[in-house]
Amino acid sequence: MLRVFKNIKGDKAIWAVVALLAVFSFLPVYSASSNLVYVVGNGTTTGHLIKHALLLFLGFGIIFGVHRIPSHFFKGLSIIAMPIVLVLLVFTLAQGDTIAGANASRWIRIPFVGITFQTSNLATVVLMIYVARYLTKIKDKTIRFKESILPLWVPVFLVVLLILPANFSTAAILFSMVLLLCFLGGYPLKYIFGIVGTGMVCLTFFILTAKAAPDLFPNRVDTWISRVESFWNPEDTEADYQIEKAKIAIASGGIVGKGAGKSVQKNFLPQSSSDFIYAIIVEEYGLVGGFVLMFFYLFLLFRIVVVANGNGTIFGKLLVLGVGLPIVFQALINMAVAVELFPVTGQTLPLISSGGTSSWMTCLAIGIILSASNKDNDIERKTLDIDDSNPLQVLSGQL
Amino acid sequence: MAVTDKTILKRLYFVTGFLFLFAGAVLFKLVNIQMVQGEKYRKLAHKRTEKLFTIEPNRGNLYSDDGSLLATSVSKYTIRFDALTVKDADFKENVKPLSDALAQLLGETSSHYQQLLRKAKANKNRYALIARNLDYSEYMAVKDFPLFRKGPYKGGLIIEQKIVREHPLGKIAERSVGYERVDENGYYTRVGLEGAFGQYLRGVEGKRLKQKIAKGQWKPIGFDNIVEPKDGYDVVSTIDINIQDIAHHALLGQLEKYKADHGCVIVMETATGEVKAISNLGRTEAGKYYERLNYAIGESHEPGSTFKLMNLVAGLEDKVIDTSDVYDTERGYWRIYRHRIKDSKRGGYGKISLAKAFEVSSNTAFAKMVHESYKENPEKYVDRLYSMQLNQELGLPIKGEGTPVIRYPDEKGWSGLSLAQMAYGYEVSMTPLQVLSFYNAIANDGEMVKPRLIKEVKEWNTTIQKFDKEVINPAICSRETVEKVQHLLANVVSKKHGTGHKLYSTNFSMAGKTGTAQKNYASKDPDKLRYISSFAGYFPAENPKYSCIVVIHEPDKSVGYYGADVSGPVFKSIAQKVYTSSPLIDEVDMEKVEDQTLEKSYQKYFAEAQKKYNKVPNVKGMCGMDAVSILENLGIEVEVKGNGKVKRQSVSQGTDLNTVDKIVLELS
To answer: The whole model's pTM is what?
Structure first.
């Protein structure tokens, strides 16, 4: 164990925040698991606790392992991973699992292990690195739109479109994160606006097709529309049920909350251990808990900016921002949903929710950030000179 | 385009700024929900998730005066079967043994239960009724039956428990024991003792706050109940189950014999007013009788001749008459204001004293007596009756006491005829218990006590409240009047000409008055004429212990209707049985037989037994029994051969006791 601690590198503040969040996450997850056990009738509370502990343990294993990899390796890895991700996404979508008649094929089952795995999470991380790599490559050129279509936008649209039918919110967030990264990476603004326009057109086309021919391919268009409608519609609808419960939870929390495990609404709020966990946290720990949690995420954002600032390479900077900002952004979206600032999406609260394997992808991202914050990796970098335009060099083991 | 650290940083600050703004918006909304909308949602939270549950307290027991249970709460169980939750293999294997076990316990055939269970299984019935109202021991047995012992999920056993009120005495005094029911609007129906003493028996409901955790599931909040349930107190009533039993069966027998519509009996302890028995039986369409309504307390009717006692007492108290006054009964009827008052004996009794008129129950004599004595001043008569509390309800805790009616002169319904009618018990109305209270006052030497059904309120063995005798009127009339009428009441039974002479017994004494009142006499159709036969009195005639009234409504005229015939026998059999069941104190002198030889031999043995021995004594010549007891008291084991007197002892006289363990005696 001591050896492991000795080998911990990178930004200690990020380590601390992540560890704190992980430790804290046991409380709301254990509390909310009573909903799964006694209402849904799924497993035992201890079982859920152990599962969460195992997932987090493995997650920290991932962080530790990944943060030891020098950050420039991720360039090549993203190129290798891209086709694999695409295949997995196609495979996931082709399964055609449905939730109440709507397509919800977000997970694939890992053979032999029996754990389900949400491919879109992996795709997000890989795509962001891929985009960061591309932006680094063109940093000194004056790029024309046509040139960037094949290496940048084709992979982006492929990934986004493959996620879209089953998971609109993830696709939308991913797309905006890619645009955000392009904006940060100096990609011309006029092209970004063009792409946003294209994206809108694509989405409209998709929705219209789905509406006109609902049986053509499985989709969840109706769910999205009803969710967005119920958000704007002041009248009570069925979809308001969750948000009302969430608000009841927040309102009954008060300044200091009801105390650990004493939430009442966890029993009525569907997804209380994942999508609506922020409401449960506020109910149990009050405004104080809600503010402290928000502070941790903003502190994480601050450290990400600091790490990006401190990293000597353009790729390093874009890499940290590319995988780091989505974590913070997802956290903010999750909280915004709970306070009815945003329509209901299926986004979990990173590092807190018992989201299963999705937390591993968050860990992967954290690991990458920590790797970029590790100055030792930079030193190594200077001793090597490689042409990272050829991915085969990655494979040849010259790095 | 030349991306540099600086351009990235500039844009990054912009993005970070936006994210901080976003976070600020989230926090603002959070505070807004808590502070501005908070009240609304907190109310919603309470409304949707918290509920006050009541915990029913255990109702107290109702006891008779000797501590026998009259009413108690017990658990009853209904067994149902969920056919869907049971595995097919389990069902197949167990359906036969289960049916056999059920058949053995519940008395139906095994095939009946097999069919029932198989049908439930085929129809996927999740709530098939197996048996209702099982008691605790039966329920415990069913729980251990094949299949059912696997429990609710694997065995499909569904158990519903409810608390019911059980009456160990069964139908006897059912109406007087009564019940208390509350409907969904919180309205109480209170009958009998249960209703009257509900405030003691009921206890206090507990309250417990529970929180909804899922549909139909509630968990208690907090460690303590908000209000602890308090079990009801036990109530000891004055009912004596032996007398109650006697009264019930005597009344039932007579009702059946006379095919009467309904009747009631009350037995009251003279000195204390404790009601020892109260029985009310009404007839069903099928001609069976059951405790239908509390006639004894609730039914106010024209008492008829039993009311003559009240008139006699009134007249004597006002000193307007005397028992020796002579009245002419003419030829059995007396015409007054074109109304004929008849005597039951055709041709009348001639000129008789008022005392005899009471004993033979002459209507004409009494009508004349009251009419003539009070016609100048009817108010005086009614005031006298009022002063004896005859117009007042007794104020019983049992709901529904009938109101007595005694009109005041010039009140609506009063006429010139009223005095004559009231003289033999018409134009007045009283309940049996009210009449009895008056008779009891006479038996009790003028002291009118309130009839009482409750003796004590207890919590386990602690007395919470004791109820003592309540006096309504310490003296309704003078001592002299009491003695006169007591004498006359005894004469009704003991004198040959008395209307109650049929009840006369040489073994025990009774006193009382018969009554035969007409009912529906306004109708012109003689077929519709009905009778109320009654007998009110007390026993023994001297030093009365109990007073008793029997009222039987609408006996079959073809069988009989006179009070002495219909109601009298009930009174008599109660008196008789209460007598025989009350132990008499009697001494039997045993002659002492003295036997000289027995006495002598005992003296001899006693002398031997008193001595202290260090050595084995000589027991030769002693009775075997004496020898054994002496030797065994010395700690020696004795073996006896033969019987009679000791002929030989195996250890000789004078041997040291410590060396001897056993001795053999030969007897002859």
So the answer is: 0.59
